[in-house]
């Protein structure tokens, strides 16, 4: 990938190498693949190839997703749990049909209190249902945020809200970022999630930061959070 970024080889060569990892069992390798495919997706979101790269993601991640399944297996280690969350989140965001259907089913059970999602599955499920959700989905997530007893769960929800796709809902998330519902130190995570969520989100987040620059700058007074905000 570094060679492709430097223009030494074609990005097509990178994708061919990535295809060779379909039987890879190691979390660290998949994490790296996921990160690099995320960079490519971001770049290609401005081109006609965006949908094709989503198909590629589904093709590469489907076999490992099927092997891991949704539920922990006896004797598996914590890296398998991390890998499951990573893979299901990647497939869900890319619109993998079976993953999306299962995420919606499990989310419904979670909200209704029938079967609470395990901590390591919450982020991938939340991201999936938001990415392909509507205003009702967002309202449900905001309600879960309000009801959450633990700050960890609030932060988990704040980080994924930016996955929502519709422009008016993106604005609602950005407004929420500066509300009293979100701790000042966590506002950046919400805006960063919007910026990383989609092409529309990036544009909206950039405009939002410019429009609210004075408030944001005064809030963070040149601390590390302002530099993190600019970075995202």
TrEMBL record:
Q: Which GO terms describe its biological process?
A: peptide catabolic process; proteolysis
| Annotated GO CC locations | cytoplasm; extracellular space; membrane
User: What does the record give under GO molecular function?
Assistant: metalloaminopeptidase activity; peptide binding; zinc ion binding
Alphabetized UniProt keyword annotations: Aminopeptidase, Hydrolase, Protease
Where's the ERAP1-like C-terminal domain? 3-231
* Protein origin, superkingdom: Eukaryota
* Gene3D superfamilies in the cross-refs: 1.25.50.20
Q: Which Pfam families match?
A: ERAP1_C
Family per record: Belongs to the peptidase M1 family.
Q: What is this protein called?
A: PSA aminopeptidase
Q: What gene does the UniProt entry assign to this protein?
A: Npepps
